[in-house]
Amino acid sequence: MPLRIIGILALVCLLVPACGFAAVFVPPSEGGAGIQAALDKLPEGGEVDLGTGIYEISHPVMLQKSRQTLRGRGAESVLFLANSANCPVVILGALSADSKNPVHGVRLADLLIDGNRKNQSEEVWKFLPNGPGIYNNGVDVRTVEDATIEHIVCCHCRSGGMVTSAGIRRLTVQDYTAFDNQFDGLACYYTEDSHFSRLNLHDNLAAGISLDLDFDHNVIDDAVLTGNDLGIFMRQSRNNDFKGLTIQKSRHHGVFMAQTIVGTVVCPGGECANNNFDAIQIAHCGGKAFLVNDATCTNNVISGGQFADNAQGGLAQAAPNLVTLRVASVPRQPAILCATVPGVR
Questions:
Q1: How far is CA 31 from the centre of its chain?
Q2: Do both 166 and 225 map to the same domain?
Q3: Is residue 142 part of a domain?
Q4: Are 185 and 160 in contact (CB under 8 A)?
Q5: Which of 329, 320, 291, 322 is nearest to 307 (CA)?
Q6: Is the residue at 146 inside a domain?
Q7: What is the DSSP code string of 228-278?
Q8: Rounded distance, CA 37 to CA 193, Å?
Q9: Looking at the structure, do residues 253 and 152 belong to the same domain, yes or no?
């Protein structure tokens, strides 16, 4: 084959993603409406690429088709929620999807998401017909499997930075930063078999991480949680692994673990149990380092944990032996991330 033809074929291979569809570029001038129009026109497996600049968002950008990708150019690609838009910035998954028909393999990458919370008046965008509300998060992940979220910053959101809910399976989140959100930097509900790594969650008004409602069989590793109200809030979470976490300067507790109680009724299955914390460091918090609030939270293990200079002490348990303390069999360095804050509008 002539070298010229080989060169042309090589160029085509670079321009066409593995799915077989060329990426579509949307400039900042087209805003959120242009992004959504491009996503809607593409088939499953298409990709929309963004440039450097600010994209004003007045309606959620929704990745509703399997294997679609939305990708920017890092912190210089900004999705900025318009004044009084009162909606999520990005939604992964179709609002009409159910657990039997999830969206598969969507990818969100290389973006800064600014929720402009001081210019939003409402936390809830809308309620779905079956009852749950859609909150004004930076990234809202709903009923998806095998999705990937990487190199994303969520800041200044009226509700949470990133929230996963409604049947999430095998989600991968890596290199995620969240700060100055009205509630949690990362909140996860109904999420299983997922992996969250290299997290930098700081100065959120509620928890760095909030886990509830069947957060089971997941891994969170290499995370730094600094200056949040709580480092980790968790209920109804079972069989999870936390590896190499550093929690510091929480206004209250480093980790708060509890049973789900509605009114005075203890909810069956609402405990935190069989969770492992490997090489967790908790320091300089305003409350306790690690508080197990309810005696139903059993069989949790801390290996190689270090607690220092917390205002109300280290480990506190509602009953003896809820947590087993172990010396780490293999020393592991906790996460130490540079808390870089990209320039935002």
A1: 24
A2: no
A3: yes
A4: yes
A5: 291
A6: yes
A7: -SEEEEEESEES-EEEEEEEE--SS-SEEEE--EETTEEPTT-S-BS-EEE
A8: 32
A9: no
6 found inside a domain: no
287 shares its domain with 161 = no
Q: Provide the residue range defining the domain that includes 28.
A: 24-171
Q: For residues 97 and 193, give the distance between their C-alpha atoms in angstroms, rounded to a whole number.
A: 20
**Claim to verify: residue 164 and residue 52 sit in the same structural domain:** yes
263 phi and psi angles, rounded to 5 deg:
70, -115
Give whole-number Cα distances, 269 to 188, 235, 257, in Å: 17, 10, 14
Q: What secondary structure letter does DSSP report for 118?
A: G
Burial class (CB in 10 A: 0-12, 13-18, 19+), 299: middle
Domain match, 54 and 154 both: yes
Tens place of pLDDT for every residue, the chain, 345 residues?
Answer: 554 544 444 444 444 444 456 799 999 999 999 999 999 999 999 999 999 999 999 999 999 999 999 999 999 999 999 999 999 999 999 887 677 789 999 999 999 999 999 999 999 999 988 778 999 999 999 999 999 999 999 999 999 999 999 889 999 999 999 999 999 999 999 999 999 999 999 999 999 999 999 999 999 999 999 999 999 999 999 999 999 999 999 999 999 999 998 887 788 889 999 999 999 999 999 999 999 999 999 999 999 999 999 999 999 999 999 999 999 766 666 665 544 434 333
Element (H, E) at 7: helix 3-15
Q: Half-sphere exposure of 221 toward its Cβ, with a 13 Å CA cutoff?
A: 12
In a domain, residue 10? The reply is no
For residue 281, give both structure tokens.
Answer: 């460091």
**pTM, to two decimals:** 0.90
